[in-house]
Amino acid sequence: MEAAGLKGYDMTWWQGVFAPSGTPPDVLAKLARAVKKVTEDPSVKTTMFDAGFVPAYVPPVELTSRMQRDMAIFKKIATDAKLDIE
Asked: Would you call 43 exposed, middle or buried from its count of C-beta atoms within 10 A (0-12, 13-18, 19+)?
């Protein structure tokens, strides 16, 4: 970001697993457990690392917080660049 002239921004690329709004809590918990199990599997970690990824389980509440933080950053970037956002 700094090379693009935007100082003070810490942007890291990440991926997440999401479910539709209204998904029952027990289903969300089961999904979270499955994602955690997969991201902690040594063979999956090796495969992902070899592909350039750093696999890490992030609990749903923490992922939501991260997503909200990143959205605020993107909004500021767009506002600073005088882009029309809706």
From this structure: exposed
Sole residue written with tokens 């029952």 = 24
Q: What is the 3-state secondary structure (H, E, C) of 28-64?
A: HHHHHHHHHHHHHCHHHHHHHHHCCCCCCCCCHHHHH
Domain boundaries, the chain: 23-55, 56-86
CB atoms within 10 A of CB 75: 12
The one-digit pLDDT tens for each residue of the chain (86 residues) are 677 776 776 667 888 999 999 999 999 999 999 999 999 999 999 999 999 998 899 999 999 999 999 889 888 888 888 887 66
